[in-house]
Amino acid sequence: MDHFDIRGGVMHAEGVNLDSLADAVGTPFYCYSSATIERHFQVFADAVAGLGDGDPLVAFAVKANPNLSVLATLARLGAGADVVSGGEMARALAAGVPANRIVFSGVGKQPHEMAAGIEAGILQFNVESEAEIGMLAAVAAAHDARVDIAIRVNPAVNPGTHAKISTGGQDSKFGIPIERAHAAFVMAAGHASLNPVGLAAHIGSQLTDLSPIESCITRLGELAQGLRGAGHGVSRIDVGGGLGVPYRADQPAPPLPSVYAEMVARATRGWDCRLIFEPGRMIVGNAGVMVAGVILVKQGTTKTFVVTDAGMNDLLRPSLYGAWHDIRALRPRGDTMVATVVGPVCESGDTFAEDRTIEAVGAGDRIAFMTAGAYGATMASTYNSRPLVPEVMVKGDAWSVVSERNQPAAMLALDARAPWL
Ligand code: LLP
């Protein structure tokens, strides 16, 4: 469910005509629908509302879309934030997410980031190694603080998703291997500056099958039971994010949040602790599109290339993961063409779609890459010295540029001539 549809022959985002918007801001750009973000958050939050101790925390995974206005939209609805860097934490705080709704994850937190989290008073750190327990204990002690932590467990579960976005397998860098997690919890409890309160896991992203998440949760439950049996308090369990979104109409849709919530309810029955969820893609994926202009159509030996003004630097997912984004014309004419849709970047991997049937377009037309709200703009770069792609948010008939396109002069200003040049 999203708010991008064709009205009067033109794609709209809520009440805003995207072709007119493209005239105003130029292409390429990302466009987010507030109504879709709000709806998806609410659907998820309502689905999990009664679970655990009845006070679950839905901590949006900021990495999926860290735009300040996206975070502020979610903060107003009561969202927390799952952050993995000092930069993400600063954004969440600036957007109005209360510190006590922020969870700090990540395998390589640096002492200055730990210090910033302690100073801000965040809810908890999800600690991912024995080495990190020692580091965080030292930073907390230097602050005369006692910080709440959860042990992030590597549950050795294969999530059955793309290898590059799979995090729960035995040989992944994430979490503490489950067989050492009990000992790690006890080790943390031995530090006066640490207060181990719970467990966490996240096994991967774009999950379309719930059974690996269910086995992961079951393993966390067994671990919690063992810890409680040994006299430790386990009051929070963070089950991560990972629920997939539909990218293609011709493939089965991932489970609905309500079905996911039923599974979590079943797997956590009787646990008596606060549950934390870290959804990212599910909240923002379908709430964003990337609009691009068609520069020209070029005939190869066997292929027809549609060359767009957006490149792999603006939307990396197809190049990096072979990911599929539906491509639609902003003004569909009713006929189709078979095209290989590429960007202007000087790499063969700068390909969005290979020999795909799309709505017919020509030079000067505009297209939308659908389901680009998650891991889109945030993974953009300035490769080929291309300006960072801007972001626009829409609410009803209103729109606002919520991240500017940086201009070549601004990019150049970050460089300096070495004194000998
Ligand atoms: N929590 C943790 C600890 C994570 O590492 C992630 C995602 C999430 C939550 C949110 O997962 P989600 O609900 O969004 O699936 N760039 C890739 C996705 C990388 C995901 C990394 N971790 C892509 O474009 O598909």
From TrEMBL:
User: What does the record give as the function of this protein?
Assistant: Specifically catalyzes the decarboxylation of meso-diaminopimelate (meso-DAP) to L-lysine.
PROSITE patterns (UniProt xref):
ODR_DC_2_1, ODR_DC_2_2
The cofactor named in the record is:
pyridoxal 5'-phosphate
Q: Which Pfam families match?
A: Orn_Arg_deC_N (PF02784), Orn_DAP_Arg_deC (PF00278)
What's the protein name? Diaminopimelate decarboxylase
State the Gene Ontology terms under molecular function: diaminopimelate decarboxylase activity; pyridoxal phosphate binding
Q: Recite the UniProt keywords alphabetically.
A: Amino-acid biosynthesis, Decarboxylase, Lyase, Lysine biosynthesis, Pyridoxal phosphate
Which residues bind pyridoxal 5'-phosphate per the record? Answer: G242, E278, P279, G280, R281, Y375
Q: Which organism is it from?
A: Sandarakinorhabdus fusca
Coiled coil feature spans: none
- What residue stretches are annotated with the Orn/DAP/Arg decarboxylase 2 N-terminal domain? 35-284
Active-site residue list: C346
Binding of substrate, residues: R281, R317, Y321, E347, Y375
Record-annotated Orn/DAP/Arg decarboxylase 2 C-terminal domain positions: 29-373
CDD domains referenced in this protein's UniProt entry, alphabetically: PLPDE_III_DapDC
Q: What does the similarity note say?
A: Belongs to the Orn/Lys/Arg decarboxylase class-II family. LysA subfamily.
Q: How does it assemble?
A: Homodimer.
Highest taxon of the lineage: Bacteria
